[in-house]
Amino acid sequence: MIVDKSFKIAEVDPRIYGSFVEHLGRAVYGGIYESSHPASDSNGFRKDVKQLIQELNVPIIRYPGGNFVSGYNWEDGVGPLNDRPKRLDLAWRTVEPNEVGTNEFTRWAREIGSDVMMAVNLGTRGVDAARNLLEYCNHPGGSYWSDLRKRHGYELPHGIKTWCLGNEMDGPWQIGQKTPQEYGRLAYETAKAMRLVDPSIELVSCGSSSTGMPSFPEWEAITLDHTYEVADFVSLHQYYGNRDNDTANFLARSMDMEHFIRTVSATCDYVKAKKRSKKTMYLSFDEWNVWYHSNEADTKIDPWTVGPPQLEDVYNFEDALLVGSMLITMLRHADRVKMACLAQLVNVIAPIMTENGGRAWKQTIFYPYLHASRYGRGVSLLPIVDSPKYDAQDYTDVPYLDSAVVYREDVEEITIFAVNRHLEEALELECDIRGFENYRVVEHIVLENEELKAVNTADEEKVKPHSGGGAECRDGFVHARLSKASWNVIRLKKA
């Protein structure tokens, strides 16, 4: 590998380390919020969960969905608790008690140090509900909805900057599914009205629900033809699984993510050229993760209950390796990917798990997310890599070494993130950093395990990192042994 400070991709927007909380399963009720829990604060939010989230330093959290938002009446979740209705959530076939709504969530997010990425309902609703919600949240006062917020006990506006114009509107599972022309027109008119209420906001236009959609990427081309000049971002969603138990193929799936990013970027640039625009459309990868373990269990859940255990994937070690590669992929595209949300944050396909009334613990995927959020802030540099490769079932020329590099000039730090995809052999890494004088290795963090299927539970943390990696710097070269199937974080500082 060759790393040089001149090989700049872009400044990393910290919001690529965002996450997502949807009113789904136990993400809210039994996750971040459980009023009867002994560790809950005076507002009903779990302090043990809050502490784990703060450890991750999550800069932005998407809310309240997700599929949920396409049937959500935001007015149900504000005002006195005793007056709030219980509603059927058709997206996940549960009962929504509306104990947590816009105000409670926004206050909680502020307490943990996160901004809110608010989604508006463009499924069953539209322009009117969206502009009213924005007025309620952001207008200082002197109008119906802003004064209603004040009567609800929130004198100051929430000042929510980032707003999603609906969710996965091309999906046949979505309440109020739209054609690209229908969505494009509705999103444009909604954006126009919202910017009249608050011109300072930034907006995310819905992209395809995944690369597997028959209309991808035509959906982006058509919808952006409407929303290009009013939106700041287009969304990307993608999940991966290992249903065939082919780990070599599974660990190569980040190459699909790379292709996804390149394709959406190219489509955005096509619309830019078509419109003769000077504006660059950025990407919000606001749903991404591994998701497949819980699919069968979810078919056995009784409908119409509050906070059932839905989408509760128990992640293993190989899942953590792919999550690491997905983070690496976004860092290598820091010039276009400016926001991203690991979906989701607690219990629902999440890095944090809880017991109702009991403990909270870290899943295997917690650690690469933690390391990237902690050490991946700065300038993303393009590493020039010469790595041996392999062929998998769905991918060819897969590099065994997957890597990204982040440089923080202000504190004179370099961080090398590296995944060794080889399931049998270590990689001997030689990294040329002669463009950085007098740097030394201060830490080599390794996440490794002999069992690819090892998991963490409330009782035992089988998968956790250690700082026993042996990387060292000699004569301008970093030398490191990357153990088989491992996630590595090599940190260097100027001596």
UniProtKB/TrEMBL annotation:
Protein name from the UniProt record: non-reducing end alpha-L-arabinofuranosidase
Enzyme nomenclature, EC number: 3.2.1.55
One GO term (biological process): L-arabinose metabolic process
The family this protein is said to belong to: Belongs to the glycosyl hydrolase 51 family.
One family name in Pfam for this protein: ASD1_dom
Highest taxon of source: Bacteria
Organism field: Fontibacillus phaseoli
Subunit-level organization: Homohexamer; trimer of dimers.
Catalytic activity of the protein: Hydrolysis of terminal non-reducing alpha-L-arabinofuranoside residues in alpha-L-arabinosides
Pathways involved: Glycan metabolism
EC top class, as a word: hydrolase
Single GO MF annotation: alpha-L-arabinofuranosidase activity
Coiled coil regions in record: none
Domain spans labelled Alpha-L-arabinofuranosidase C-terminal: 286-486
UniProtKB keywords: Carbohydrate metabolism, Glycosidase, Hydrolase
